[in-house]
Amino acid sequence: MSKKLAVMLSGRGSNFVAIAETIASGALQGCHIDVVLSDKPDAPGLEEARRRGIDTMVCARRQYASKQEWEQAMIDGLQARNVDFIILAGFMRILGEGFINAFPRRILNIHPSLLPSFIGLDAQQQALDYGVRYSGCTVHFVTNDLDAGPIIVQKVVPVLPADDAAALSRRILEQEHVAYSEAIALVVAGKYEIQGRRVLLK
């Protein structure tokens, strides 16, 4: 049975588009995007989802009295749809323990660095400031520790002498579009086990 994916985004959702196109091409099988959820009613990714015939949900933080109520509304909506995995694709809010614990080892995120290096915001500028020769991206399971979940897939991107944050970000994003679908294929197939922070293929 095809696994249901819920994609959560706050903006244009370029990783969402890449995943949707990989599924449509047949290169990523065994899953489909069941719903796209955003915390921003005007997120361009929502319109892109509708154009593709994918259901959408909006849970704007300002509509709820507390973060807990907001997260519970998202939990209820996603659980009602029986989604198998949640794909964070530029969702620009930090999720709390209540949300993460509702979907243990079922939430994936992508980060524009080779974790555990350069966690948090502006990872590309952090890499440039540190002077590394290589950066990249990491797809990982989400845990209650920021950018610290078990690593599923990483892609390496060289840092060029003329790079600024924008140029490095563009090249990393190209690899994000590849890495995310690879990671989803692995988890959908279920042929892995988690040992500590390592994801081992069976």
TrEMBL record:
Active site annotation, chain numbering: 111
One family name in Pfam for this protein: Formyl_trans_N
Catalysed reactions listed for this entry: N(1)-(5-phospho-beta-D-ribosyl)glycinamide + (6R)-10-formyltetrahydrofolate = N(2)-formyl-N(1)-(5-phospho-beta-D-ribosyl)glycinamide + (6S)-5,6,7,8-tetrahydrofolate + H(+)
Source organism superkingdom: Bacteria
Formyl transferase N-terminal domain span: 3-184
GO biological process: 'de novo' IMP biosynthetic process
Enzyme class, first EC level, given as a word: transferase
Protein name, entry field: Phosphoribosylglycinamide formyltransferase
Organism whose genome encodes this protein: Desulfurispirillum indicum (strain ATCC BAA-1389 / DSM 22839 / S5)
Gene name of this polypeptide: purN
